[in-house]
Amino acid sequence: MVKEIISAAEENLKKSVEVVRKEFASLRAGRATPALVDKVTVSYYGTPTPLNQLANISVPEARTLLIQPWDKSAMPEIERAILKSDLGITPTSDGTVIRLTIPQLTQERRVELVKSVKKKAEEGRVAIRNVRRDINDTLKSKQKEGVPEDEVKRGQDDMQKLTDKYIKEIDEMVKTKEQEIMQV
């Protein structure tokens, strides 16, 4: 019974790490990646639609994103959505494709991005600790229902090991992303 609780918790921990990984992918690190526009939603015929469902997004050069809308009539809306987004990049259009040229990062911007990475990582760590707290509370209530104390204690120890493992994984992701951002 305790093992099932712990394995269910591990799924939640994996999801928390995956959320942080996606957040990191959407941060601009001086290189173009289709993940940069994952959060951009376009008003397509009055419906908010993710950009990647309206266009083909490719990376022809290291610092250029090429967006080819399947419906050419959606181009003005796509450009408007990119301008409204927090990307800070102005799109250029030639009537058939939209180009996003990613500028070189200034040192100030790099420092801001590193702070943002650390903030998102801390949010991930907090989510992991919340899972641990919830599971420990569940285990304590199971003890009151008659589960042996040593089994509950073992479950709490296992939960702490999992917590440490996933927090370490986030810390390693932070190191990698920080190096990527600070690399000139």
UniProtKB/TrEMBL annotation:
<comment type="function">
    <text>Responsible for the release of ribosomes from messenger RNA at the termination of protein biosynthesis. May increase the efficiency of translation by recycling ribosomes from one round of translation to another.</text>
</comment>
<feature type="domain" description="Ribosome recycling factor">
    <location>
        <begin position="21"/>
        <end position="182"/>
    </location>
</feature>
<dbReference type="InterPro" id="IPR002661">
    <property type="entry name" value="Ribosome_recyc_fac"/>
</dbReference>
<dbReference type="InterPro" id="IPR036191">
    <property type="entry name" value="RRF_sf"/>
</dbReference>
<comment type="similarity">
    <text>Belongs to the RRF family.</text>
</comment>
<keyword id="KW-0648">Protein biosynthesis</keyword>
<dbReference type="GO" id="GO:0005737">
    <property type="term" value="C:cytoplasm"/>
</dbReference>
<protein>
    <recommendedName>
        <fullName>Ribosome-recycling factor</fullName>
    </recommendedName>
</protein>
<dbReference type="GO" id="GO:0006415">
    <property type="term" value="P:translational termination"/>
</dbReference>
<keyword id="KW-0963">Cytoplasm</keyword>
<dbReference type="GO" id="GO:0043023">
    <property type="term" value="F:ribosomal large subunit binding"/>
</dbReference>
<dbReference type="InterPro" id="IPR023584">
    <property type="entry name" value="Ribosome_recyc_fac_dom"/>
</dbReference>
<dbReference type="Pfam" id="PF01765">
    <property type="entry name" value="RRF"/>
</dbReference>
